[in-house]
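Q: Can someone sanity-check these two? First one:
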Amino acid sequence: MTALKVLILGVICVQLSCGREFSTLNHIRSKTPSDVQSTAAADLIKRVIGVRASDFLVSVDPSIGPKNRDTFKLVSSGAKLSITGTSGVAAAMGFYYYLKYYCGGQFTWAGQQVALPTVLPVIASPGKVVTSNDQFRYYQNVCTVSYSFAWWDWARWEREIDWMAMQGINLPLAFTGQEAIFQRVYMAMGFTDKDLESHFGGAAFLAWARMGNIHGWGGPLPQTWMDAQLILQHQIVTRMRSLGITPVLPGFAGHVPAAITRVFPQANVTRLGGWSNFHQNYSETYLLDFSDPLFSKIGGSFIKAMEYEFGVDHIYNADTFNEMTPRSNDPAYLAAAAKGVYNGLLAGDTQAIWLMQGWLFMEQGFWKPPQIKALLTGVPQGKMIILDLISELYPIYARTESYYGQPFIWCMLHNFGGTMELYGALDKVNVGPSAGRSFPNTTMVGTGLTPEGINQNEVMYEFMNEQAWRPGPVDLLDWIDSYQKQRYNGGNKFTSVAWALLKWSVYNCSDTHREHSTNVPITTRPRLVPELAPDIWYDPEQLYQAWDNMVLASATPALGNNTLFTYDLVDVTRNSLQILSSMYYRDIIAAYITTNTSQLQTAGQKMVDLLSDLDTLLASDVHFLLGTWTEAARQFSLDVNDTILYDLNSRNQVTLWGPTGQIRDYAAKQWSGLINRYYKPRWQLFVDSLVNSTKTGIPFNNVKYDQDTFSTVELPFSNDHTAFPTTTTGSSVDLAAKFHQKYRPETKSKFFSQFPRKSDRTSAFSKQLARQWGRALA
């Protein structure tokens, strides 16, 4: 190949790997001085590795890379490593790159493995240079702030911001504390505290109150909460900016307190429709008409109040119609709606950029091409950014001509409700971002993470974040082997094979399956009909073989003392037991249908025993404790009334999700305490009811069972004030081995033959597994 051809090919590859740039977005970048950013990045490294931070020389120099794309350079300087980044984020990203790929380390939600070699690995001159593909790396779903962040203090936020920076995230949502600002604006306009009590949601439900889905549920929001969150937001925004991160602040989307009809009788308002079975007492929020002069007044006042409090970064999130149907599908109305929201932002900041979640466009009954185009083109091109919220499964940019010219960010949603099923679509994430950048007339400007909840499936987030700088797809088997070595300080032959099996099974979803709690029998209220159908897209035997290998690996003392390994061991064991519940449920139903009381009692006892054992297992790791969540909520209590309120919020969100179970089990968690006190009693009552039915001959009444479950289990738990443990009991290694010995024989049941087997010797799976075994034994 000639030198000219090589040069041309290189130019083409660079063009395909990089997203579009919009001059209208040039001002969305850090204004923090380089020396402040370099100091912040150096401080981050010290928090992560302690005294070894002195082995790193950190500097920020925007000139080393292209404009609007972050670059880092790594090169040895004597015994130390020099890290230069175009920003603090870039420097932190460079540090993490070195930690992972030169030192074999990892820093995640579940913990870290950051032991450095005594002598740092050398990177000879001219060094290693990496440049991001796009301008932005976004983080958070508007729901994440409630499903996962609701009870965070500064210590937890500080660690998360460190994680963000090392992952290269430079555009995260920063929604904390906004109720105090809205309170300030509304009360200056004549609203009262009482008016706002029924408008703001409770502490665990703020995400949906902010989007107008609900109002008031979980409240009233204490003044002490709003004040504390305002202080916390100052810490969050200050730290983000010090690292060169641009926080996305909230904007006014048009949802207003019901008292607006009293304070402004002439205001043009309508009520949105109900949401998720909530009664109008908590739903049907008032929406101010976009053409009403009050819209720009409130919108502008809110932006200016935020700027006075926190400063300005010129980018704001506002979601008016998220899971809410507009009152008209007339394109002219929708264009006016978009213009109204945007003008509200401009009234407070003439350089405003509107960032909006594209989730609403998933509802194709209403949002057809004319409606989508009208909303998007109601704002000047390049003045809004769309989060293509679930690009890995449903890339909306592909059916909207790349959002009709508006810039978008390719996002991996992955998780709903913060549930915990092992799940991922690695193959789709491997190719998706590159496909977005090479789409005809692409307007892609970044990649993003938009999970509804975090603290699960960490492998998916490590991999997705690398798409920010990887030029294209990688060999996934090689990548995942590298991942487990980083995680387990080298791992061993068993962890290597275990992760190959996980990659091929739970992380190999190739259809449009969406991880969800209602696919898991143990965390779904039992019913006779329609039967709870197991939603398993992979061969369970491959998961069980991964479990085999994780248990074998746990016999190695170094791994048994590795917190990331024991976390994964518990997680794989948990999911393996979870699948067995589908078999026991099927046996319960079959025994009831044949009125075989003895078999029904046996199958029912197996289900109850499984739940007891699962609770015992989960109690061995702090990440799987209900008490970690509930006690974090209680820390904000100043008196008994606060405690009662925060108890309700923390317990209700993960169970009933509403006063009577409006979104029951959506945010289900497999946590110790929650299993024994909530899910097991529901199943015990279900089994007892079925047994009583077979004995008396009176048909099982599912409606009565639902009523009894709500009144005797679900509502009492939601209103309970029992404190749950925040410390672990038992050994994760010993318990995983014990339950593996007890339950692994159960997985040989014919029940699992209904799922397609992929492990025959001629399959691609067998070839890859053989390859992994060979690598592990080498």
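And here is the second, same format, sequence then tokens:
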Amino acid sequence: MSISQIGIIISILVYLAGMLLVGFVASKSTNDVKDFYLGGRKLGPFVTAMSAEASDMSSYLLMGVPGLAYFSGIADAGWTCLGLIAGTYLNWLFTAKRLRNYTEKLDAITIPDYFKKRFDDKNNVLLCIGALFIIVFFVPYTASGFSACGKLFSSLFGINYQLAMITSAVIIVGYTTTGGFLAASKTDFIQSIVMTIALFFVLGYGVVTAGGASNVIANAQSLPGFLNMSATHDNVANAANPYGVFNKITMFCWGLGYFGMPHILLRFMAIRKSSELKLSRRIASVWVVFSLGIAVVLGVVGRAMTTAGVLEDLIDPANPTSSSLAETLIVVLARQISEHGFIFALLAGMVLAGILASTMSTADSQLIAASSSVSENLIQETFGINLSEAAAMLTARATLVAVAVLGVVIAWNPSSSVFGIVSFAWAGFGAVFGPIMLLSLYWKRTNKFGAVAGMISGGAMVFIWKYMVRPMGGVWDLYELAPAFLVALIVIVVVSLITPAPADKITEEFEHVSKMS
């Protein structure tokens, strides 16, 4: 084993040991199921902000976004990032405080539980539908994280992809099952810091190695469409492909997904005081702008390094239309950094720990949300199985492990695209939960019939658009989130208006929370 590999392994082992230690310490404060799933509503503003954003910025921050920018230029990645920045700010502005106040008043600890109590759904229909959709979309989302870890270690050490993926999954499950939501939130806070340091360090190294900022810009300008927000670079024809208004709108509409992300919404619910959310919003918004901006620029810098001959080409000649290989950009850069001596190897290990951080910070939160949906919302509330506190905790942890196993199965193929998997799951959550979340907080005429119809139509449209409409190509080749979100929004309004109005009790609760917020 080389000196560079030893240095990398030391950094990563120290990082992983630290995450497990945080999980162990957090377990001391996890006394019951409510603590396990919501941390006792005692997160501070900094942890709330940074854990929310770290759990959002999964492996696509350090792998998906730079890889996409490296592969086709700034348009695809750029419009997506602009949408994410706008969505982040608006979600904190319009959703956070009202949801925090509403869920505290209703004593709801999960998103499906909130919908059940918000609409007084005694038959648990909303609870069941919400829990099932969380499982359907969180399993592949978690799989994207495991896939990123597998690619990381396989590319770095030449070890078996599946073995690396399973090992990473075991670590993530280890600290999450130990400390629950509190462990996930505290580790996410630490991971956001590691991710930020990794981005800045790799970007600086890349610019210097590529010959300076002027060389980076000159190289990007020499590639047709690469620096154009209205075109993408075609690697096969070495030409620019038009990037039309519909593509821009649908990629910008990634921001709509925030309103329906359970693992982000749970952070709003868990802060100790709703008055602290304003500070959290500012912290989160600034971090998102910097992190996404650097991720896009890193892809451009990586392409310049390839042209300069100091970085291997990450366009797969056997599959030149796939960005999967390009997603290993930061891994290849870290490996190159490690070859400059033991100290640089330790720094490279920190960069790779940043990739692990981006992956783990999302996977742990997703596992918590999926686990709560099964053990709390399905087993106990929908099926009416009463569990003791000890049995409920055991069920929660067993469910978390089961979801992780399914994620490993989905991510088994090393050719799977991190960005592709995340985009589908993101669309699913955005369309299923986003419209009903906004309307439940701001339109008192919304009722349970509209909520049920909206969630089902939004989820169904994601599948219909992706697998039946989008393959038609042309103007129909649009990201599925925007049309699915719009359909769900219309269905909720129409169905709510043609069915009985909510009971006075529900309306009074709505007005009370509105005044609080």
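A (reply): Looked at the second one. Strands lie at 231-234, 239-242. The chain has one domain: 3-410.
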